[in-house]
């Protein structure tokens, strides 16, 4: 069991505890006494976990509404958001009421944005059920939906009041989704945690190794907490969490979301690591070891998209300002830096082979 404190404009705890979903009221009630509550989830997570949560809340005196939508990244859009907030209004949820996001990053980002904006903001709790959500998306308060022009272009910073992570939910995750989570985990290794890379090299993360998964979730949440507490609204430092995302977001979008977030980030990191090798920041052994780490975790390292297309989409993402874009560049094994470069230089970082 781990309790990690997140220091931000509103502070909260991340509880990581096996079987926490069997006694959620003990964590929720001290923060929000019984009241109308909406649980937002998708159609793959809800059948597995929503009844258990709803029943416990109802037994404790909460009035529970549920909003369940089809799973997948294409649902993280403005139409779905509008449908959700219309539903919340129909149920006459008030400012004092509560929203619970139960699911992966798609549910968390969409429901978090609804919570950020409905009645100008209501409290919400993240219950991450995917590995990716546990290590990354449930923490730090970035909420958003995608627009036609790109990923997460309509969103808000809104911290949850609690993150309740039950790592046993990882057992029911499809294998491909487990790999997606590993993409973000390996990212953290390059953000000042070479010991994490070393650990995963000698002991690749396995879906049935719960103690290892728990330890890794805790490490990633602490790493994210450290960055978010220093730069909640991404004035600078927080952009490091975008390592692999400059082209990762492009790959997701160009594939019409057939390539999932963690996989796309993996390819984005591979491109950047090859560029780092070309620039002398890492040696060939380190490059090979990093790419092997990705493939050992069933993550892709190649893309068919052209440098022109990858750069075109990237230049419309949030790290582009005027004629420059801020990229996240490896400086050595286990470490990255922010670097602002002219748009014209971005294609140099699309290194598909060395
Ligand atoms: N806000 C942030 O800081 C942040 C950080 C990283 C990623 N993201 C966003 O998160 C999204 C990706 O999140 P994701 O990978 O969790 O995707 P996701 O929410 O689509 O979940 C992946 C799939 O796994 C299923 N699933 C989730 N938990 C399950 C479980 N326990 N058992 C069985 N099935 C389960 C879901 O139904 C879905 O089909 C992207 O939109 C990405 O942009 C946001
Ligand atoms: O929390 C952050 O900050 C991150 O950048 C985490 C990323 O893993 C995540 O994918 C995030 O949603 C990307 O944010 P964006 O601002 O680049 O859309
Ligand atoms: Zn990400």
Task: Write out key terms for the chains shown.
globular; binds nicotinamide-adenine-dinucleotide; 3-stranded antiparallel beta sheet; Rossmann fold; Dehydroquinate synthase-like, alpha domain; alpha/beta; binds ligand LNCXM5UN; binds zinc ion
Which spans of ≥5 residues are poorly predicted at pLDDT below 50?
A: none
Strand content: 15-25%
Sheet having the most strands: 7 strands, mixed
So what's the overall shape? globular
Question: Overall mean pLDDT score?
Answer: 98
Compute the separation of the termini in Å: 44 Å
SSE pattern:
EEHEHEHEHEHEEEHHHHHHHEEE
CATH topology of the largest domain: Dehydroquinate synthase-like, alpha domain
Bound molecules: nicotinamide-adenine-dinucleotide, the ligand O=C(O)C(=O)C[C@@H](O)[C@H](O)[C@H](O)COP(=O)(O)O, zinc ion
Number of helices: 12
The CATH class of the largest domain, by name, is Mainly Alpha
Number of domains: 2
Structural category: alpha/beta
At the fourth level of CATH, the homologous superfamily of the largest domain is Dehydroquinate synthase-like - alpha domain
DSSP strand count: 12
Helical content band: 40-55%
At CATH level 2, the architecture of the largest domain is: Up-down Bundle
Spatially, the strands of the biggest sheet line up as 1-2-9-6-5-3-4
Catalytic activity: 7-phospho-2-dehydro-3-deoxy-D-arabino-heptonate = 3-dehydroquinate + phosphate
Binding site for Zn(2+): 184, 245, 261
GO molecular function: 3-dehydroquinate synthase activity; metal ion binding; nucleotide binding
Family: Belongs to the sugar phosphate cyclases superfamily. Dehydroquinate synthase family.
């Amino acid at each position: 069991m781990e309790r990690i404190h997140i220091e931000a404009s509103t502070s909260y705890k991340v509880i990581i505890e096996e079987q926490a979903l069997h006694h959620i009221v003990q964590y929720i009630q001290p923060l929000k006494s019984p009241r109308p509550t909406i649980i937002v989830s998708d159609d793959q997570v809800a059948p597995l976990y929503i009844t258990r949560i709803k029943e416990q809340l109802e037994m404790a005196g909460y009035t529970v509404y549920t909003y369940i939508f089809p799973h997948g990244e294409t649902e993280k859009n403005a139409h779905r958001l509008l449908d959700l907030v219309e539903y919340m209004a129909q149920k006459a949820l008030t400012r004092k009421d509560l929203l619970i996001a139960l699911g992966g990053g798609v549910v968390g980002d969409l429901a978090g944005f609804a919570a950020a904006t409905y009645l100008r903001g209501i409290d919400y709790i993240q219950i991450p059920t995917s590995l990716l959500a546990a290590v990354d998306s449930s923490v730090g308060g970035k909420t958003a939906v995608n627009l036609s022009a790109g990923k997460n272009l309509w969103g808000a910073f809104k911290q949850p009041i609690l993150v309740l992570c039950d790592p046993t939910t990882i057992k029911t995750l499809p294998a491909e989704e487990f790999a997606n989570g590993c993409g973000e985990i390996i990212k953290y290794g390059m953000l000042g945690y070479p010991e994490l890379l070393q650990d995963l090299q000698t002991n690749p993360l396995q879906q049935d190794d719960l103690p290892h998964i728990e330890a890794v979730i805790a490490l990633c949440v602490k790493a994210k907490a450290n960055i978010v507490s220093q730069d909640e609204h991404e004035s600078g430092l927080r952009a490091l969490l975008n390592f692999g995302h400059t082209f990762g977001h492009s790959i997701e979008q160009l594939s019409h979301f057939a390539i999932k977030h963690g996989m796309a980030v993996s390819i984005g990191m591979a491109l950047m690591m090859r560029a780092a090798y070309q620039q002398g920041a890492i040696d060939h052994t380190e490059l090979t070891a990093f790419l092997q780490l990705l493939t050992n975790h069933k993550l892709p390292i190649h893309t068919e998209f052209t440098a022109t297309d990858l750069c075109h989409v990237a230049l419309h993402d949030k790290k582009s300002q005027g004629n420059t874009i801020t990229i996240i560049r490896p400086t050595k094994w286990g470490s990255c830096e922010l670097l602002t470069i002219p748009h014209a230089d971005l294609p140099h970082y699309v290194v598909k082979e060395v």
